[in-house]
Design goal:
The complex is a heterodimer of chains A (287) and B (586). Chain A has 287 residues and is α/β, with parallel strands linked by helices. Chain A is built from eleven helices and eight strands. Chain A is globular and about 70 Å long. Chain B has 586 residues and is an alpha/beta fold. Classes of the chains: A alpha/beta (287), B alpha/beta (586). Strand 2 of chain A pairs parallel with strand 15 of chain B. The complex binds thiamine diphosphate and iron/sulfur cluster. Chain B: Pfam families: POR, POR_N.
Chain lengths: 287, 586
């Protein structure tokens, strides 16, 4: 059915309950378009989501999906993809979900380089729990739990990914529909772990990292002379704390995904009716 | 009986105690003798006392006893550590030429055989073979044909080249000849051989083998004693069957990866021990509410916290039975011996898929690290049946869609089991979630739907109670008024304890229960008995508690929680004492 798939086929009939104007609408639309543009359909797509406003995405999309527990979406996606390489696996979550409770999994998912796409809806705040500091919140950002600001520097997810050996590191802005879609599409097409940090503003709780702020400060790498295969250039930009970049910061085109390295190409759901052929050899070993 | 041998080798961790013990166990098994091994080990890699013990007989052996007949002591401490089990007829083999062993005193009337293990090993080609020299000496003491040792050495070192094998055989000969020439004792032992072909393996290996046999293709885990052997067994083997082992970054990740693979349709599992089960608890509820078939093995060790990582305990029963917030329908299956680790693992995968639930495979350290001999038929691959439950294919999807053609993965059926569509199935795309959901898998807080879904999930357990056989295994005198009940690896010691009790004219009916939940209803049996004793390796009597709850009565308890498994003779004494005691602990 892939030839006739339209992006709306990835829409569920459930109306999102996100606040009007939430950045997650744009993030999700771009994901659905990117999936359709890359020839996927809901029956071969698996979306894994974490907990948070962002994590509700699996509900609003139509595909095979799992809405798991807080911070563990990446391991779930890893299991899905390794068990069935035919599936297009997309993992989505928030900055709290991915860089706080799930930070450990993030680093290891990056280095494991399973061929899937990870989209983080980065609003620099905890939305669903109503406005606490997230790991990407600014040092002086006042919230209900940090009245004087977190007083610790924000994490730099792109730098984490680069240092962990990331093979595809990108950033986009949810409201810039065309660029965002294009970037997610590149992440899907990438052979390996495609990581996209998306600026996805929270209109309810974050009055600092707003649409206006991003619109004014974003530098699009398409307008710059940036070669994403140049790791040094990527490093320089990723570590530049004064700029917000949009585009593919780094891509290792030689990247070999986990399944290829480990020779995994079959669907593990296909098993025989009884013990597999050759199973008696397992017993003979113990004579 | 001189044919029943209790042998041990002990020394410092790092001395190759484990592999030497295993070679001797293999030699005995290859000679058609039954073998049951146990290990004393400390949680460190170098240094620290460690021992490998073998009990062997031409009859089946199911447990350890409080007796040691031949001890290979590589250090003086080895003798001290085993003093309780040594007796006047014990033989101690040691290397009196080594300076540290020069002043060794052989206790009581025991026989000390000073054999220059190191010197003879060097003569045969290298000091590293000193343990093999000791095995040769043990063959002489027990009248055991050394050719059987040869064949175990070939198996162990075959892939390292012919000269390694022949040097080791030579080292064994030197040990044997030294004892024959230097000592003219009449030893009591005369080990028979038979032409039986046994296999020798431990519980972790049996779990791994069961998993592959059952079609498990995905394993994610994080190393932890004593469960790591499951992972090590599967690594390198599961790949040959198209599967994969992933070493996750922690247990939270491991169980979630396994869950992901299961949702993709693979038979999938993880294994861990207490501290890891704690971390995995977070995901138990998600597995249950998303109705994902998943096998989670908990190979118990002494807790709480880091406890005693290398010691026995059955302290996680409550954890697997009740762990996790909210109420979680689940199955808890507890194999009772090494062979059952294989069968129950196969069964666990079928239960998981038939009922789309988490299944806990509750094993324990004693069983996991015990090598035991079996007739190969115990691992009969032809008998393995795979039941994947209600998986719907492309054509069947329509029957399970609603009026708007949406697939209903949590449809509330009469038996509680819903249709399951694996990703890739046409027109069945759906979401699953840890949130309470309706038949479509969508979030709901509707009071009626909430009740419907909770009841639906619990109905699966009711269905399983009716459809599956949860009976206990029965031993001893069926008409006895004395009823002993145990679970897990205590079965072996208790079976043998029955013989000791019989010698004292004490009859006992013994029920060994391999299912914690659902479990057999033993109320009638408990009512009918005068004395009911529940045996388990924990302090509080977790299984006794649930049986008391089921039968609405008090039972006596025999508990052991010093880190060491029950020994058959010791258990017999404890049962006798419990039968005589008036006291029933609340
Ligand atoms: C284990 C656990 N701890 C805490 C929570 C509560 N919780 C729900 S969402 C959330 C934070 C979400 O923040 P983020 O990932 O940034 O997502 P957003 O809502 O901003 O999209 C937290 C802490 C939870 N569900 N589970
Ligand atoms: S709270 Fe913020 S993140 Fe959540 S839906 Fe509203 S705008 Fe979006």
């Amino acid at each position: 059915m892939s030839s006739e798939v339209r992006f709306t086929d990835f829409k569920s009939d459930k109306q999102p309950t996100w606040c009007p104007g939430c950045g997650d609408f744009g993030t999700m639309n771009g994901m659905m378009k990117a999936l359709a543009n890359t020839g996927n359909d809901p029956d071969n797509t698996f979306v894994v989501a974490g907990i948070g406003c962002s994590g509700k995405i699996g509900t609003y999309m139509h595909s095979y999906a799992l809405h798991g527990v807080h911070g563990r979406a990446l391991p779930v996606g890893t299991g899905v993809k390794l068990a069935n390489p035919d599936l297009e696996v997309m993992v989505a979550g928030g900055d709290g979900d991915g860089y706080s409770i799930g930070a450990g999994h993030f680093i290891h998912a990056v280095r494991r380089n399973v061929d899937m796409t990870y989209v983080v809806m980065d609003n620099r705040i905890y939305g669903l729990t109503k406005g606490q500091a997230s790991p990407t919140s600014r040092e002086d950002f006042e919230t209900s739990t940090t009245p004087e600001g977190p007083k610790q520097p924000p994490v730099n997810p792109l730098a984490l990914a680069l240092s962990a050996g990331g093979s595809f590191i990108a950033q986009s802005f949810s409201t810039d529909a065309q660029r965002h879609t294009e970037i997610v599409q590149k992440a899907i097409e990438h052979d390996g772990f495609g990581f996209v940090n998306v600026f996805s503003p929270c209109v309810t709780f974050n009055d600092v990292d707003t649409y206006d702020y991003f619109r004014d400060s974003i530098v699009d790498l398409a307008d710059e002379d940036h070669d994403p295969t140049d790791r040094e250039a990527a490093k320089e930009r990723i570590l530049d704390a004064d700029k917000e970049y949009q585009g593919i910061l780094y891509q290792n085109e030689e990247s070999v995904p986990y399944s290829d390295l480990h020779g995994l190409d079959s669907n593990m759901a296909d098993i025989p009716d009884g013990a597999p052929e050759g199973a008696m050899d397992l017993v003979r070993e113990f004579y | 009986m001189p044919d029943d041998l209790n042998w041990a080798i002990g020394g410092e961790a790092g001395d190759g105690i484990d592999s030497t013990g295993k070679i001797f166990a293999q030699a005995l098994s290859r000679a058609g003798r039954h073998v049951f091994t146990s290990k004393d080990f400390a949680s460190r890699i170098r240094g620290g006392y460690t021992a490998y013990k073998i009990r062997s007989s031409t009859d089946r052996v199911e447990s350890v006893v409080d007796r040691l007949d031949i001890l290979v002591a590589l250090t003086e401490r080895t003798i001290d550590e085993n003093l309780d089990e040594l007796h006047d007829d014990s033989v101690i083999i040691y290397d009196g030429e080594r300076t540290e062993m020069e002043d060794v005193e052989i206790p009581g009337d025991m026989t000390g055989l000073s054999v220059p293990l190191q010197r003879l090993a060097e003569e045969a080609g290298g000091a590293i073979m000193q343990n093999i020299v000791a095995l040769g000496a043990a063959c002489e003491v027990t009248n055991f044909p050394i050719e059987n040792l040869d064949s175990a050495l070939e198996k162990k070192f075959g892939n390292k080249g012919e000269s390694i094998v022949s040097n080791n055989k030579e080292a064994a000969r030197k040990g044997q000849e030294f004892v024959a020439e230097e000592y003219d004792y009449e030893f009591d032992y005369d080990l028979d051989t038979t032409d039986n072909d046994y296999v020798l393996l431990n519980g972790d290996e049996a779990i791994g083998m069961g998993a592959i046999a059952a079609g498990c293709r995905f394993y994610a885990g994080y190393p932890i004693t004593p469960a790591t052997d499951v992972m090590e067994y599967l690594t390198g083997r599961i790949e040959q069957f198209g599967g994969e082992v992933v070493q996750a970054e922690d247990e939270l990740s491991a169980i979630n990866m396994a869950l992901g693979a299961a949702r993709a349709g693979a038979r999938s599992m993880t294994a861990t021990s207490g501290p890891g089960i704690d971390l995995m608890t977070e995901t138990f509820g998600l597995v249950a509410t998303s109705e994902t078939p998943l096998v989670i093995a908990d190979v118990m060790r002494s807790g709480p916290s880091t406890g005693m990582p290398t010691k026995q305990e059955q302290g996680d029963l409550n954890m697997t039975l009740y762990g996790g917030h909210g109420e979680i329908p689940r199955f808890v299956v507890a194999p009772t011996n090494v062979g059952e680790c294989f069968q129950k693992t196969v069964e666990a995968f079928n239960l998981a898929e038939k009922y789309q639930t988490p299944v806990f495979l509750l094993a324990d350290l004693s069983m996991a690290v015990t090598e035991q001999t079996f007739e190969p038929e115990v691992f009969d691959m032809d008998a393995v049946e795979i039941d994947r439950g209600k998986i719907v294919d492309d054509d069947e999807v329509e029957a399970w869609t609603d009026e708007r053609d949406r697939f209903q993965p949590h449809f509330s059926t009469a038996d509680g089991i819903s249709p399951r569509a694996l990703p890739g199935t046409e027109n069945a795309a759906h979401m699953s979630t840890g949130l309470e959901h309706n038949a479509l898998g969508r979030r709901t807080e509707d009071t009626d739907v909430r009740i419907e879904q909770v009841d639906k999930r619990n109905r699966k357990v009711e269905t399983a109670k009716e459809e599956e056989d949860w009976s206990p295994r029965e031993f001893g005198d069926p008409d006895s008024d004395n009823l002993v009940i145990s679970w897990g690896s205590n079965e072996g010691a208790m079976r043998e304890a029955l013989d000791y009790l019989d010698e004292e004219d004490i009859d006992v009916r013994f029920l060994s229960v391999p299912y914690i939940f659902p479990r057999p209803d033993l109320s009638d049996e408990i009512d009918a008995a005068d004395e009911v004793i529940v045996v388990e390796c924990n302090e509080s009597g977790q299984f006794a508690d649930v049986l008391e709850h089921d039968a609405l009565t008090r039972v006596k308890r025999v508990n052991k929680y010093n880190g060491v498994r029950f020994k058959a003779d010791e258990l017999a004494d404890e049962i006798e004492a419990a039968l005589q005691s008036e006291e029933v602990r609340a």
